[in-house]
Protein 1
Amino acid sequence: MVGPLLSRSLLLTLQPLASEDVGALLDRAVADPRGLDGRVNLAPQAREHILRVAGADARKALTLLEAVADAALGLGSSTQDALPEITGEITERTMDAALVAYDKSGDQHYDVISAFIKSVRGSDVDAALHYLARMVVAGEDPRFIARRLVILASEDIGMADPQGLVIAQAAADAVTFIGMPEGRIPLAEATTYLATAPKSNRSYRAIDAAIADVRAGKAGVVPQHLRDAHYAGAERIGHGKSYVYSHDAPGGVAHQEYLPDSLRGSRYYQPTEYGFERTVTDRMARIRDMLGRDGS
């Protein structure tokens, strides 16, 4: 939303209807001449099932009621004088599963995917699987779900478990290869793995910090010993001079500066103590010592 436009607008937040409100709407739709006009009976079990599936969405509740009423009217009544009845059995058999409380083009689309990502990030595997199930049942594009898992694997798990990105990408490839409904299985596997994995956003924060420095003009000049020395005349102007080939150095780490002088001592990546990053923390301390950094 554009700020100036928002400041001149009246912003209203619509709250979900209560189950009692949607239930009253169903009862009125059954009896009202503009609705079913009392031509069917709505059994309590069927009524509860519609409410449960429609959630707080009155439009979905009415759509479901219309569908199951058509089915009941098509079957007729068991006796000549009785009205056709919408039973729980008819309701369960007739309902289109895609009418679950989720709208792929509306707010529910964004709310459910947001809850899904936040549940995985928050390590609540059961909640994550619940929201995944809602998207699967609603017919969400599995490639959309897979893409979000790939992003999450890098953003929220990162180096705490680098295998997370491998799992997420494998799930994305599997979904593309096998399609649905079987694609739900690798999606569930990836969701379970990522939700239970240790979490770190330090790689994500590191690149954003480095980008911020570059955009602020802190690029600096590439050190002479790191410049390309493969073209004719490069060595005469000092390119590559004094460069130490890392594989020839003790431990595979050469004591030399890699950052531009203006950024010497900068630290972007700060690993956590979680998962694999615990090992990375120890290794980075040794590397920085070998590089000749003072640890500041």
Note: The chain has twelve helices and two strands.
Protein 2
Amino acid sequence: MQRHGSDGSAVIRLRAAGLILLLAHLVLVAWLTLRPRDVMWVTAANLQPLAGIRADLALGPLEAARRIGEGLLLLAPLGVLLPMAGGRLAVSPWASLFRTVMAGALVSLGIELAQTVVPGRVVDVDAVLLNTVGVALAHLAVVPAWRGRLRRRKQGPGTGRGPRPAGGGSRGRGLGMLRDDVSQGATPRIPRVGIAP
């Protein structure tokens, strides 16, 4: 019983750490992307998808890798920090990916819209695309394996989800009953009391 309590506190600590790291990362991203730049001129806003990426590729492989890599890495930690802050272990991998990617896209879009009022910054739709892809890649690379490992650790040794041995199950459940479904005993009954006239 104590193990389940410690698992609950571990999830709470993990969630708290995720929230703190998420907040710290968002503050860093805001500082990097929303500071005014002192430049002589700025390029026009890019509202055509992939036009900025094509322009980066025209600069040569090293410069293109640097610029595209910066776009992918800027919000990539959100792919791990958002599920970590959520603190859920039993969730559909596709639903988790969808929610995380949509949240990352909204954060990126918010940054781009906020940059419209910052001197020296312009809107770039390719930045939203690269940021969103970075969030998705980080999520796919880390979160499914991380959640699986935490679920296995939470179950502990000897509590696998294989079939129970014969004779150890409850009525009507058969061999497919999971070890987590151990009977808790009979349901308590309250005696009926007659109503006074």
Note: The CA atoms of residues 56 and 66 lie 9 Å apart.
